Amino acid sequence: MAMRETKRIFRSGLKNFARSGTVSFASILISTITLFVVAGLIFTQAVLHHSLSQIEDKVDVTVYFTTVAEENKIFTIKESLETLPEVLLVSYTSADEALALFRDRHQNDYLTLQALDELSENPLGASLNIKAKNPSQYESIVNLLEGEEGLIKDGAQIIDKINYHQNKVVIDRLNSIINGAKSLGFFVTLVLVVMSIIIMFNTIRLTIHFTREEISIMRLVGAENKYIRGPFIVEGMLYGSVATIVTLLIYIPVTLWFKNKMIDFLGIDMWSYYMSNFFQIFFIIFVSGLLLGAISSFFAVRKYLRN
Amino acid sequence: MIYFNNVTKTYAGDLPALDNINLTVGAGEFVSIVGHSGAGKTTLIKLILREEEPTGGSVFFESSDIHRLKSKDLTKLRRKIGVVFQDFKLLPNKTAYENIAFAMEAAGKSDEDIATDVPHVLELVDLAHRMMHFPTQLSGGEKQRLAIARAIINQPDVIIADEPTGNLDPINTYEVVQIFKKINDLGTTIILTTHNRGVVESIGKRVITLDRGKIVRDDADGRYVI
Predict the structure, then answer these.
(1) Smallest CA–CA separation between B225 and chain A, in Å?
(2) Angle at B199 between CA B27 and CA B145, to 5 degrees
(3) Ranges A4-18, A42-56, A66-80, A102-116, most confident
(4) A67-157 CATH pick, 3.40.50.150, 3.40.50.261, 3.40.50.720, 3.30.70.3040
(5) Cβ pair B107:A15 closer than 8 A
(6) What is the DSSP letter of B193?
(7) pLDDT for the residue numbered A29
(8) A232: distance to nearest CA of chain B, Å?
(9) pTM above the 0.80 mark?
(10) Residue among A16, A19, A221 whose CB faces B106 most closely
(11) Chain B closest-CA separation from residue A228 CA (Å)
(12) What's the rounded mean pLDDT across residues A21-29?
């Protein structure tokens, strides 16, 4: 009995969908725009996330040691730093490596190299480059390094300087930009998704409004509410399904264009991102399409089924 | 079968459309309700179908107060009533066959019954050759015959027809009236509203005359007097 009803509801929904021509086309178009926005937001989030992590990656703090600092003491500090939960990576640059890097950086600067050669010993000390898991954690790491009760009570005399104070303004600024971009991204996403849902809901409500007369006829011939509502929900789900396919197809040339033209600007290969996350994106869009179609239809018909 | 008990219906800020109506329609009767436009004929029909709620009084179908039925029971009641309207009220996106099949599906009939009964009833109203046509492809008379076929397919206890010949030419009017007479001869109660004198006289059965919301005549012999 229930099986027969379900079959009839699906058959009726399919026929209405096929016969409604222009109305179906308009609904699919609007649903496609909605899903296009939803998918676009997935890509935007990916670009934002990629850019932010790149920026985050550029932030670090370097501890410069005096030329007389013993290597084993530096390694003790390095090991202590590595045990901190906030620290992602600590890399050591020896005094010789620092000199080699300096020479390499100034290979065209003859005067500087000559001045360096005049000196009998290496003027540069070793350094530790610290990367935190989160840019906001640098301050606490530096405080630990500098604190009297902190990490290196006897290390104070071997530390020449910590460049955190020079970079503090930039780091704080980046921190606020990153946090701002994240909140703004979330807010914009939310607003756009809500707007798209409202537009799609209203379109489906409008198409059902045109059939209110039919709904009243169905009620007059004794059809139960679920039997009237069912085909409309099926129709809504079909709009969502077709719109999903159209949206995913549109994104093939779009992401290819981004791959060819915008890779330097965005720093991320959209086509590869699309292809490697295709099933996740398909799932999100398809489920969004089905749910939006079904829920919009459900509420739109409900208005005319109240007695 | 149908009882109106002191029924009044007033639309907001207007004179009563129906004023203290007491009326009984027995099983197997053919009742014509006549009156000028605005006399209250359609309001009376809408109250039986519960498309409107009465301002006062009660309307009964057998022992049930129509306006106190729960949604599920109302659906069952509507399956006992076949409806025919002046503007046909067919489903535009469904073929003639599907329009009738829909009423049967709504009543929970099996696919086998639908496949047997729909062509049969279409043949009865002489529309077998128009089975796969959509309402927009049918003439006015054909549309009304299709509406009648839909109304009788579930063998209702009563058929309510609101101005069923209002949009038809004399030949189609005659045909539709003949179909109603046949249906009534088979034992189905019919309540029909009209302001067509010829229709009332060709039926020749009970006539109730409404004027400004009141029953002014109730004749058993098919007289149209206004």
Answers:
(1) 32
(2) 75
(3) A4-18
(4) 3.30.70.3040
(5) no
(6) E
(7) 92
(8) 13
(9) no
(10) A221
(11) 9
(12) 89
